[in-house]
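lol forgot to send this yesterday, sorry. struct tokens for the thing we talked abt
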């Protein structure tokens, strides 16, 4: 099966620097096949016969800690799941959306319903978000750099690990994974 691993906080602002060839080699050392990195921000495509996403995440997290000395969040999902995420983006149904302002925040697990109920989406307009199980679709008309909807916001409010990719990256990862 084909998978995508997205790492949070790699090569951002000079912190947690990992060269992508070294990251690819680490994935190959684990035993993954068809390993390829996309961009410098910790997006890795790979194949594995192991279908247990939690096990894959654990193995990757441990290998990164061992090889690079970083304890960073890693979220793994299948290429089929990414295809579904692309298809289900509710902002694509709007007539006036700007795809450069769309992002997807991937969550390590579905948030607790009581934490979700505490979020007042109207409070942050014109920025909008829609939670769908383990992803949050974002529409940030003023740009992601100015929104309050960053990873820390969702992690603090929902009590889950989060990492965000822009819509272009989501589409490119899906394309590279053969979906």
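and heres what i got for the seq, position by position
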């Amino acid at each position: 099966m084909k998978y995508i691993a997205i790492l949070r906080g790699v090569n951002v602002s000079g912190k947690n620097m990992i060269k992508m060839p070294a990251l690819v080699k680490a994935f190959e050392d684990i035993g993954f096949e068809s390993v390829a990195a996309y961009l410098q921000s910790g997006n890795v495509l790979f194949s594995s016969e192991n279908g247990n996403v939690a096990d894959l995440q654990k193995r990757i997290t441990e290998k990164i800690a061992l090889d690079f000395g970083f304890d960073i969040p890693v979220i793994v999902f299948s290429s089929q799941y990414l295809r579904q995420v692309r298809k289900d983006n509710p902002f694509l149904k709007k007539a006036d959306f700007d795809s450069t302002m769309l992002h997807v925040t991937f969550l390590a697990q579905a948030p607790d319903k009581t934490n979700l109920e505490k979020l007042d989406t109207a409070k942050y307009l014109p920025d909008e978000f829609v939670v769908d199980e383990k992803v949050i679709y974002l529409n940030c008309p003023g740009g992601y750099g100015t929104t309050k909807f960053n990873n820390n916001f969702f992690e603090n409010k929902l009590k889950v690990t989060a990492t965000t990719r822009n819509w272009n990256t989501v589409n490119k990862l899906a394309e590279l994974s053969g979906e």
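The mean pLDDT is 92. anyway ping me if u want another try
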